[in-house]
Write a structure and sequence with these properties.
By secondary structure, this protein is of the alpha/beta class. About 30% of the residues lie in helices and about 20% in strands.
Length: about 425
């Protein structure tokens, strides 16, 4: 975005391509959702971001192993789509904040920049505290915006659409979206946003709405516009552990990016978050789970994340976890469990004893123990426990270091906050090609 850009120019750019994109995306939607492939019978990995420079071997690996990624310039996207024409790429943009001048995003598919010069001219677009001063995040300095200002909303929609079209993206990842962030990031500059105020206090600036209510209107409006053009909206709503946050994230967007998903050791919070997430999954929304490891060899945490994902995975559910390197691969991601036997309406449907949850697939089963004590999981016949070894960064020549081992048994001990995956026939699992989609 340059200094001379304006909403009027953006609108002129978008309107002529609306019909084209509606026609070209209608056929794709019949087999996928905004380009995202179905995940009913597979573990699907969505990479957070890929390096700007990759050897040809690494580019081939990324295109044929990951479902997609984000924050990629058009040149990198086209390179990946030579190996996988269906490779999904999302545009990156903040949701309810304006990026500060020194932080950049991809503005036209090719260049990293910022639209600060234009946005900065519109004082009424910014959120102000009671002293009339702009409110910035204490985390990274971004600016909170007045999401009920009609001119701001018009500009936001048109400029994001223009950026998506230029970058040939399938949609937009809207970062820092949740109103639950406001007490942590904005209350230091505007005490009116402290504690639970985002969902309980009404603001004149928001036409008498709470921030949570205003978010719902803002996101539904943005999503309606983007989906009309054939693009998905995926706001980063966090892990849904905040009890007081009653915001409707479930019908107002195309799906969600859930950062820090499953990262709790509180059983009550875990159950609440799983049921909230199921509201998305049971509506066939696109859900990307992203969690973090302290080290690649933390096998217990890896199997816990994988187990949680498999417990509630639906038609458009994607996973990622990593330690230091985003460009990583773990052997457990190659498991072929087939389809789940039944859909999950509530996490309670999967309860097998207190704080033990299990789900059956065509070729195996998964369990997660969220209690403070070891649990013994019994099976009616011998099965094979999946034990990953190795895994981590992908080498420059596109190689991965990792294998799956199997322990045969009819019962297994599951430690607190640990996941268990068993397969019925390990021979078929051993023969699989690691990492193939």
């Amino acid at each position: 975005m340059t200094r001379n850009d304006s909403p009027k120019i953006v609108i002129c750019f978008v309107v002529p391509v609306i019909l084209f994109f509606l026609i070209t995306t209608s056929l794709a939607k019949a087999q996928s959702k905004f380009g995202f492939p179905e995940t009913t019978n597979k573990i699907a990995i969505f990479a957070d971001q890929l390096p700007s420079y990759m050897t040809e071997a690494r580019a081939r690996f990324a295109a044929t192993h990951y479902v997609g990624s984000q924050k990629l310039t058009l040149g990198i996207t086209k390179r990946l789509r030579k190996y996988n024409p269906k490779f999904v790429v999302l545009h990156y943009h903040l949701a309810i904040w304006q990026q500060q001048p020194k932080h950049r995003f991809i503005i036209d598919g090719k260049r990293w920049g910022n639209d600060w010069d234009f946005v900065n001219k519109h004082e009424d677009w910014f959120w102000h505290n009671e002293k009339g001063k702009r409110v910035r995040s204490k985390i990274d300095g971004k600016y909170l915006m007045n999401i009920m200002n009609p001119e701001f909303r018009k500009y936001w929609k048109k400029s994001i659409a223009r950026q998506i079209i230029a970058g040939e993206y399938q949609g937009v990842f809207l970062d820092s979206a949740s109103p639950a962030l406001l007490p942590w990031e904005a209350a230091w500059a505007d005490p009116r946003l402290a504690r639970k105020a985002a969902c309980s206090r009404r603001f004149e600036e928001l036409n008498g709405l709470t921030w949570c209510e205003a978010y719902e209107i803002f996101m539904a409006d943005l999503t309606g516009f983007m989906e009309f053009l054939g693009f998905a909206t995926l706001p980063n709503i966090g892990a849904l552990f905040t009890t007081w946050d009653k915001t409707d994230y479930y019908t107002t967007a195309s799906g969600a990016f859930m950062e820090n998903a499953f990262q709790t050791r509180n059983a009550k919070d875990w159950k609440m978050a799983m049921d909230r997430t199921l509201k998305l999954i049971n509506r066939d929304k696109i859900v990307i789970f992203q969690s973090y490891l302290k080290r690649d060899a933390d096998y217990k945490t890896r199997m816990y994340y994988l187990g949680c994902y498999l417990l509630i995975k639906g038609r458009y559910s994607y996973l990622n976890y990593f330690a230091k390197s985003i460009f990583s691969w773990y052997p457990e991601w190659d498991l072929k469990l087939g389809k789940p036997i039944e859909p999950v309406k509530s996490i309670k449907d999967l309860e097998r004893g207190k704080n033990l949850y299990c789900r059956k697939y065509e070729k195996g089963e998964v369990c997660v123990n969220i209690s403070r004590k070891d649990k013994v999981v019994n099976f009616k016949q011998p099965v094979f426990r999946v034990i990953p070894q190795g895994g981590g960064p992908v080498s420059k020549d596109g190689k991965i270091d990792g294998i799956l081992m199997f322990e045969k048994g009819e019962k297994f001990v599951l430690k607190p906050w640990e996941g268990l995956v068993v397969v019925y026939d390990e021979r078929k699992t051993k023969k699989m090609e690691l990492g193939s989609l």
